[in-house]
Amino acid sequence: MAAGRIPTAELFDAEFLAALGSLRIVAKRVAPRGRHAEHRSRDRGGGLEFRDYRPYAAGDDLRTIDWNIYRRLGRLFLRVYEENEDLPLYLLPDVSESAWLESPPRAVAGLRCALALAAISLGQHDRVGVFPFAEDLRVHVRPSAGKRRLFALAEALTRLEPGGRTQFARSLQTFASLKLRAGLVVVISDFFDPAGLEAVSTALRTLRHRLLLVQLVRATDARPDVTGDVRVIDCESGAGEEISVTPAVLAGYRRAHDEFQAGLAAFARDRGAGLLRLDVEQPVLAQLAALFEGGRLAV
After folding, report:
1. How far apart are CA 295 and CA 282, in angstroms?
2. pTM for the whole structure
3. At 103, is the secondary structure helix, strand, or coil?
4. What mean pLDDT comes out for the span 213-217?
C-alpha cells in the first residue's frame, strides 16, 4: 500500500455504516460544560429529566420553584433537572512505521475501528477528535460534532501517513498537555513500545479520561511461524540481529508474549478501562460489536 493514502473503500462502505446504526455509546456521567447531547451530566440544571429538590438560594431561577411544596411547608425549594450533554470521543490511532507493515497492515484495521466509533459518536451528537501518534502525537482532526462530519473525518483518516518510531510516553504527554474536556479516549495500537509495557502503562495512567484500549493483534504475534537461522530487523529503528530460532527460543518468546498480554489485561482491569483485542485479519465490525452488550457500550 502506498504510504499516506488509504483507499476510502478500505475504510468503509454503505453496508459498513448501516451496521453501526444500532450501536450506542452510553456514559454513566459526563463532565459538565459540554454541549447538549445524549449523556447524563454531573451538572444539574434545566434539562428534561427531574432528579431532586434543593433549597432556594438568592439569585436562583424563580421558574423552578415548586409552589406546591411552598404551600405545604412554607419553604422555597427548587426542582432540579438533569442535563444531558455530550461525551467527547478522542481517537488515538498508532501510525508508527510498524503499523503499516505486513498484509493487511494493522493501521487499516485500526482506522476502520476508529471510523466506526466516530460514526457512532457523531450520530449521538458527540464531539469527535483524531490524534494520531508515533514518535509524538498531533492534532489531525479537532474535536467537533455533527453527523455530516463523518465523511470529512473519513477522508482525513485516508490521509494519515506513517509517523516513525513508537513513543507512548512522549505522545501521551503531548495529549495530556492539550487539556481537553474529560471524555472517552480510545487508544488503538499493538501497544509494543521499545521502552516496554511498564512505560506504556505509566503513560496511560496519566490520562484523566475514560479509557478504551483497542489492541491490534494477529495470530503470528503469539505463535510466530519461523525456525532456523534468521536475521531479525527492527522495522522502526533498522537495527538487526542474527539469531537461531530453536524450540527453546520459541518457548521463551511465547512466555514473554503471554506475560505481555496478561500485563496489558491487568492494567486495563485495574484502571477500569475497556480492552478489545482486534484481530486485524478478521472483519472489524463483528469484533467491535462484542463490546456493545445489547447494542450499548457503557463507559
Report:
1. 20
2. 0.78
3. coil
4. 97
